[in-house]
Specification:
- The chain has helices spanning 3-6, 10-18, 35-46, 50-62, 76-89, 95-110, 115-129, 136-152, 156-176.
- Helix content is 68%, strand content 0%.
- It has one domain.
- It is an all-alpha fold and 179 residues long.
- The protein contains nine helices and no strands.
Length: 179
């Protein structure tokens, strides 16, 4: 894969070129998780071009949009985020335009009254941000785990099930090359 397909962001391209070996990241938020599956996801994401990575993050996050608070569940910013990310994936808008929408989408989390809504919105906002930088994909994924943690009282079985769902999305995307 060429570096322009791997990452659209010049900083991430430079970091990839200088990388001597792959290292796992640590979650940026506190989660109860299956670390082995999280690491497997991170390895697989590293092999994907940013276009598929962004599609993957969107599929991970949209699963949890039905957990938004009632006053947010049909909010127009959701469709705005999805449409804007798809435009970025298709190359019809710049990262700058996507980032502006990303800040707007992030307001959903700030307007949430419940934790599960807040973390669902954060997962979604991170998915949108994946159109700017690859690194947001794992944060999106981790926030999805945080949603599952909140819904299941920190069930490791539920986290494992979610990580397996995320891996299946990767498998489906890499087999077809599209969503």
């Amino acid at each position: 894969m060429n570096i322009d397909d791997y990452a659209w962001n010049k900083h991430e391209q430079k970091t990839k070129k200088e990388e001597k070996e792959f290292t796992y990241s640590l979650p940026k938020i506190k989660i109860f998780d299956n670390n082995e599956l999280r690491n497997k996801i991170e390895e697989e994401l590293e092999k994907m071009p940013q276009k598929l990575l962004a599609q993957w993050a969107l599929k991970v996050a949209t699963q949890y949009l039905n957990n938004l608070d009632n006053h947010l569940i049909n909010d127009s910013r959701i469709n705005l985020g999805i449409e804007t990310l798809n435009k970025r994936i298709n190359g019809s808008i710049r990262a700058y335009d996507l980032r502006k929408v990303g800040f707007t989408v992030n307001e959903l989390a700030k307007e949430s009254t419940s934790d599960v809504s807040k973390y669902s919105a954060r997962s979604f906002a991170q998915a949108i941000a994946t159109g700017h930088m690859r690194g947001h994909a794992m944060v999106c994924s981790d926030y999805a785990i945080r949603v599952v943690n909140n819904l299941t009282n920190n069930s490791l079985d539920a986290s494992t099930k979610e990580r397996k769902r995320q891996l299946k999305i990767i498998d489906n995307l890499t087999k077809t090359g599209t969503s």
